[in-house]
Input
Amino acid sequence: MGLTREGYRIAVAGAEDGPSGVDGVGGGAGGGGSDVVDEVYEHCSLERPLARLAELAGQSPDGLAVVLDSANGIMDAPLAALGIPVLRADPPLLTDGRTTARSLAALGRSRRGALTALPPDGWTMAGREDGIAAAEAACAPVERELVEQGMLLAGGGGAAPLVALTFDDGPHPEYTPQVLDVLARYDAPAAFFCIGLHALAHPGVVRRIAAEGHLLGNHSWSHAYLPDLGPIGLREQLGFTADTLARAVGTTRASSWLRPPYGGRSPELLRAVAGMGLTTVLWDVDAKDWSRPGPGIVADRVLRAVGPGSVVLMHDGGGDRSQTVAALPGVITGLRRRGYRIVGLDELLAARPARTF
Output
């Protein structure tokens, strides 16, 4: 499963055939075997390629596994929900994060033993937690510098009772409008960190976010673990998303804010992002709404953890977000009862909450 600037690409390599070519569309293009498929899905939601992969899995007598890399973090959970095994190709097998569907299919055929099988209830980076934690710990000196320069907002440690609400992984055609409806009802600002592929599929939702005065943020093209990428891959992941958001709202630059997926970062990444003129936004309050524990628990998690200068992480895409929508009124009213004012990220950044690293 690969990605392009226009959408998704599927290539299937059978047991005896090589991976399909990259230019044809339809079964057998460039491959020569009946089980070889090369298909392109452009400007569409994730459901279309997922449905095709489910169909292919049902047609495969020997089973089908999907090979992804860490630059594709939007497919793992949906594929697991369909019962389709997922294999991850890590950087030693890749080239600068520019992996194609064809090359991933080839890896699945010829080097399956070098790939990491993701657990059905796991996440894209399962098995790499220690390395990720070490990379984030090494960021402390750079993070201090960027906080002082106003190029990083971590959340928490502020003096004024200000809080920012942020939503990741959209836009979603159903849940993002519902979140926007609640925010409008309570006159509350928020920031939406958009995945580029989702913005490409739903530009009208992006336009509504901006038209209603909310901030647009960059959340990469495909929910990538950004420290794995080389310079070209990083420019593509962030640049494709920036261009898509700008086209949707009719500006030359729609956002100067970045939230790295998973909060994944390294010293090199943080410096590279700052060099692009982007302010990195992390968080100190995680609603963990993706776990769907119930609206009351989601709201309670936020209200228990919040403090002056907090940045609250929630989600408007990436799955069923009905509980997030249901929890949001309680979050907003609960914050205000506690004396907090909900503000945009720009105002929170201007207040410069300190953080102890």
The mean pLDDT is 90.
